[in-house]
Every structure is written in C-alpha cells, then in structure tokens.
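Exercise 4. Each item below gives a protein and its sequence. For each, produce the structure-token representation.

Item: YtxH domain-containing protein (Runella defluvii).
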Amino acid sequence: MKKLSNLNWAWIGAGIGAVGGYLYWKEIGCVTGTCPIKSQWQTMVPYGTLLGYLGADLVQSLLKPKAS
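Answer:
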C-alpha cells in the first residue's frame, strides 16, 4: 500500500481542478455567452485541470523535504 507521502498530489489536484472548472462554468459562467473562456464548459474544464495540477504540484514541491 502506498503511503500518502508517495502520492503524486499534482494528479489529485488536476482532478479537483477539473471539477472546479466545471462548477465554475455551471454556477458563475457567462450569462451573455460572449465570454470566450467562461461561456463553454469545454474550455473551463481544461483550464481548471491545468490550474489544479500546477497549484498542487507547487504545494507538493514546497512541502517536500529537500535531500542533502
């Protein structure tokens, strides 16, 4: 069984970001439909995935102890 410290948190963050991108589109989105990014879920989910991946990878790299 893997330990939690060995998990690649970036992929977990990508999944959370994808769900967050979809929810952002669903709940906030763009009412008029003229916003090129926010008006379609097909663009918000990849953006959320990318931001979730990068954010979780950044946090993981900051919390990882440095080997000497």
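Check: The chain has one domain: 5-61.
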